Amino acid sequence: MSATDPLVLGIETSCDETGIGIVRGRTLLANVIASSMDEHARYGGVVPEIAARAHLEALQPTLEAALAEAGVTLDDLDAIAVTSGPGLAGALMVGVGAAKALALGAGKPLYAVNHLVGHVGADVLRDDGSEIELPTIALLVSGGHTSLLHVRDLLDDVELLGETIDDAAGEAFDKVARLLGLPYPGGPQIDRVAADGDPEAIRFPRGLTLPKDLAQHRYDFSFSGLKTAVARHVEKLQNAGSDVPTADVAASFREAVVDVLLTKALAACAELGVPRLLLGGGVVANARVRQVAAERCAAAGIELRIPPLALCTDNGAMIAALGAELASRGRAPSPLGFGADSTLPVTSAQAS
Description:
The chain has helices spanning about 35-40, 50-70, 90-105, 115-120, 170-180, 185-195, 210-215, 225-240, 245-270, 285-300, 315-330; strands spanning about 5-10, 15-25, 25-35, 80-85, 110-115, 135-140, 145-155, 155-165, 275-280, 305. It has about 350 residues and is of the alpha/beta class.
């Protein structure tokens, strides 16, 4: 870390977590997150209006906590960065509005950045200080996104190879958890229950992996058919008056998701000649995802990079890091006329 590296504050409000992060160049100084997950749990999923209100309530105390943790003031900052998309429109608007107010009030340049590219950029904040090598294949897996990227340059050359054509992986975890009578959020609950199950007990389908599907959807994902297969399996057992082996169902479902994710990601590495894979997004916290990724990458001679788990879920630090990259390269700040863009394409690191 150098005193000449830009000191940047990042604001993340794309879904249900209010994140404020502060970095000095590529050094993490603060990462404070306020989650409204408990408020959404009673509804079994994120309610956009509740998320937006929660951001309004959490922004100021989260900001104050981050500034205190980093030991800096708004006047010390060199720039502010904010997620402008993709995400929930109402939630994004809260963060964008707050960032504009702070930037104007403190007289600081403002960078509107891409949430998904931020997940890739989180890797520059690794504790071991190792540099991310490019190009890399990046697999981003969260509640709202499942995307496979070819990253040649973090700011200028991110290619979308494929994405989910229906449910994201995180959504599938939530829906299957509900089928099994497990609480929201589904990812940690499935992970917990699956630990006692047999991942080979039930052969659930692997979406978009048949030859006819690969021709058109080589790197795309689909989890709705898998979710339906789990529902039919559970329904069949219940109709027969049999007990549902929850642990086996959870483990077999999780294995199907992990298998598809990593098979497609490693195929991209092999076919594009990229010897490294970066994982990002909240689903990466899943123990089986990390375990199988490590095993398969080692077998294929692929370098595996996973940001610190605290930076895998939505957070402001990754947004600050992306803003610092923009500032370090002398990129012009975003014009204050930018808005929240719920469908901002991953090919744009900085929103216009």
